[in-house]
Design goal:
globular; five-stranded parallel sheet; 13 helices; binds NADP nicotinamide-adenine-dinucleotide phosphate; seven-stranded parallel sheet
């Protein structure tokens, strides 16, 4: 493990690392943490001399941060499977490896997508808010009528790790499972009876549409006004992938006008700010980016981050290199 004057290599953890990862990394590295509210300026102050940066979706790993770290920086280990917060080209130019934490959060995130599906379909968010605010006047045969999911057509946009697990979880409820994907998934077609269709057809036919593609230039604004207009009036849209996939004002408009039934969101463009139009939109369940927030997933992610950092610092190929 390389470091100046034989000292332990410095690892900048942009937020904080759970004990499962800290124990592993701390044995061989000096760890500096930015803490949950560290600003980009604060991270640049802490970065000089770092051999590794542990980032996460809330941390922009850009030219400025990479420059602040200096030429000894050899790895950016993202505490997430998505890595749209990392400037991959800037890392490549500097010879900095980039790693992520796939698989260990797949189930947790798919379970949250299922929770949002149920919450949005059955209007759980607004019903609970009304009860807590004293607005519940009594049992009402016409109140909070939602979508029954048994026999529904589920559409998974993307059928990678999380999309596939979501499809498995809804399989017992679904009448039919549709998916979009760049490549066909014969296993899912055979085992779950899933059918690959184009996005427009999926939007037109599905009662529930759940997004499971990464944020890339191609997927930005994937669900906008036209796509929402193609959906059924009772359909539920779930987004546990990334905020930029959905045009927030178009979604708020579709909910207001009743051109879709409900939405369940875990992610937003410009987090932690939440688009105000979504805060005001009806039949919309909003969560603060907690897709992978189970003890099991987060501890495994912390261990994986540590393994990736230690591998690169030891001159070995990391288990989860993405660039
Ligand atoms: P994955 O296994 O890589 O699956 C991604 C899927 O998207 C695949 O079906 C892939 O198609 C498709 N895809 C990839 N790039 C695409 C593009 N440019 N256009 C259209 N389709 C594309 O990823 P994953 O592990 O399932 O994770 C999916 C995303 O979930 C992550 O990128 C992350 O943003 C998000 N996520 C959110 C949370 C949360 O806390 N809310 C937690 C974990 C992950 P092919 O299979 O044909 O390549």
């Amino acid at each position: 493990m390389t470091s100046p004057a034989g000292s332990k290599p410095l690892v900048l953890v942009a937020r904080r690392l759970l004990p499962a990862g800290e124990e592993r990394l701390g044995a061989e590295c000096t760890i500096v943490e930015g803490g949950p509210t560290a600003t980009p300026e604060r991270l640049r102050e802490l970065a000089p001399g770092a051999s590794a940066i542990v980032a996460d979706p809330a941390v922009a790993v850009d030219e400025a941060l990479l420059d602040a770290a200096g030429p000894q920086l050899s790895v950016v280990a993202n505490f997430a499977v998505g890595y749209d917060n990392v400037d991959l080209e800037a890392c490549r130019r500097r010879g900095v490896a980039v790693t992520n934490t796939p698989d260990v959060l797949t189930n947790a995130t798919a379970e949250l997508a299922l929770a949002l599906t149920l919450a949005a379909a059955r209007r759980i968010g607004e019903a609970e808010a009304d009860l807590r605010a004293g607005r519940w006047a009594g049992w009402d045969p016409g109140a909070y009528l939602g979508l029954e999911l048994s026999g529904a057509t589920f559409g998974s946009v993307g059928l990678g790790r999380i999309g596939r697990r979501y499809a498995e979880l809804v399989h017992g409820l679904a009448g039919e499972i549709l998916y979009t994907s760049r490549t066909p998934k014969p296993d899912a077609e055979r085992e779950l009876g899933a059918s690959r269709v184009g996005l427009r057809e999926l939007l037109r036919r599905a009662d529930v549409v759940s997004l499971h593609v990464p944020a890339t230039p191609e997927t930005a604004g994937l669900i906008g006004r036209e796509e929402l207009a193609a959906m059924k009036a009772h359909a539920v849209l779930v987004n546990t992938a990334r905020g930029p996939l959905v045009v927030a004002f178009a979604l708020a408009e579709a909910l207001r006008e009743g051109s879709i039934g409900a939405a369940g969101l875990d992610v937003y463009e410009g987090e932690p700010a939440v688009p105000p139009e979504l805060l005001e939109a009806p039949r919309c369940v909003l969560l603060p980016h907690i897709g992978s927030a189970t003890t099991r997933a987060r501890e495994a992610m912390a261990r994986l981050v540590a393994e990736n950092v230690l591998a690169v610092l030891a001159g070995a190929e990391p288990p989860n290199r993405v660039a």
